[in-house]
């Protein structure tokens, strides 16, 4: 099954990003495809390479990047939501790209499921 | 990363934007609305539902000038018709619990009970909530 994911909250403040990451990993491990994760609202902060969590904590920005690297997951940060929050190309973490909301609608159209993580 | 190529040619799905939060105080309602407007360009079957505090999103008389200073986007709901987005549903229980009636809304809506709302949601292909 093709599963698109929408992440609506930033890392660390909220569990949504952790849950989405673990869901994506589990889905891929079960043989499903996760072609795209779309980051919206404060979710755009998942793509901030300046994020530097304490060394004994998980590093979500890097974990997402590794997921993209290992499994070809397309990590898309919303341009409009990103601009509001200062997430631009020069601070974008490896594995992410910035694009428009059309990419979210396209994921809804092209995936068998679109799963949202957030409040 | 390379952009993933979805097969979307000729695909028409039922999209619901499920609005559950008050319009001002958080950014959710505004950013959902931005997604709604973009979705109109993809020729999908789009509807909006307003439940819980989401019913306040279409309430008449919202004024942000002297409160948060947040951009007042209430009039955007009136523009949805121009994007061929005309299916707007309000959950009756949420509306009544907040002392509202259809007269309080800035757009024409269909008021349906929670049981019908559940059926409506279940019948969608994609539900994007905020």
The percentage of residues in β strands of chain A lies in 15-25%
Helix-and-strand structural type of chain A: alpha/beta
For the record, the CATH class of chain B is: Alpha Beta
Q: Summarize the amount of helix of chain A as a percent range.
A: 25-40%
Output the strand order for the largest sheet of chain A: 4-3-2-1-5
The biggest sheet of chain B amounts to: 5 strands, parallel
Order of helices and strands of chain B: EHEHEHEHE
Overall CATH architecture of chain B: 3-Layer(aba) Sandwich
What Rg of chain A is obtained from the alpha carbons, in whole angstroms? 13 Å
- Work out the radius of gyration of chain B: 15 Å
At CATH level 2, the architecture of chain A is: 3-Layer(aba) Sandwich
Give, in spatial order, the strands making up the sheet with the most strands of chain B.
Answer: 4-3-2-1-5
Question: In which range does the helix fraction of chain B lie?
Answer: 10-25%
- Topology-level CATH name of chain B: Hypothetical Protein Ychn, Chain: A
Low-confidence stretches of chain B: none
Instruction: State the shape of chain B.
Output: globular
Per the CATH scheme, the topology name of chain A is Hypothetical Protein Ychn, Chain: A
What this model shows, in words?
- The complex is a heterodimer of chains A (119) and B (130).
- Chain A is of the alpha/beta class and 119 residues long.
- Chain A has a single domain, classed as Hypothetical Protein Ychn, Chain: A (3-Layer(aba) Sandwich).
- Chain A is globular, with a radius of gyration of 13 Å.
- Chain A has a five-stranded parallel β-sheet with strand order 4-3-2-1-5, with helices on both faces.
- Chain A has four helices and five strands; from the N terminus they run βαβαβαβαβ.
- Chain B has 130 residues and is of the alpha/beta class.
- Chain B has a single domain (14-129), classed as Hypothetical Protein Ychn, Chain: A.
- Helix content of chain B is 24%, strand content 18%.
- Chain B has a five-stranded parallel β-sheet.
- The mean pLDDT of chain B is 94.
């Amino acid at each position: 099954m093709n599963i698109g994911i929408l992440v609506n909250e930033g890392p660390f403040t909220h569990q949504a990003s952790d849950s989405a990451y673990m869901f994506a990993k589990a889905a891929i491990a079960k043989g499903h495809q996760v072609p795209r994760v779309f980051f919206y609202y404060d979710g755009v902060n998942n793509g901030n390479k300046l994020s530097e969590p304490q060394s004994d904590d998980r590093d979500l920005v890097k974990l997402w990047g590794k997921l993209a690297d290992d499994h070809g997951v397309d990590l898309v940060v919303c341009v409009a939501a990103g601009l509001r929050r200062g997430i631009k190309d020069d601070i974008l973490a490896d594995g992410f790209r910035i694009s428009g909301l059309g990419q979210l609608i396209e994921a809804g159209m092209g995936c068998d499921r679109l799963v949202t993580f957030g409040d | 990363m390379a952009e993933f190529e979805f097969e979307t040619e000729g695909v028409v799905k039922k999209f619901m934007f499920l609005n559950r939060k008050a319009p001002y105080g958080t950014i959710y309602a505004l950013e959902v609305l931005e997604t709604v407007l973009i979705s109109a360009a993809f020729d999908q079957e789009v509807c909006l539902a307003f439940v819980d505090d989401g019913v306040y999103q279409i309430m008449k008389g919202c004024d942000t000038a002297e409160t948060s200073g947040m951009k007042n986007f209430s009039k955007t709901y009136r523009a949805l018709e121009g994007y061929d987005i005309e299916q707007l549903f309000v959950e009756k229980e949420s509306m009544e619990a907040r002392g509202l009636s259809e007269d309080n809304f800035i757009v024409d809506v269909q008021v349906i009970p929670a049981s019908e709302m559940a059926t409506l949601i279940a019948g969608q292909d994609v539900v994007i909530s905020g």
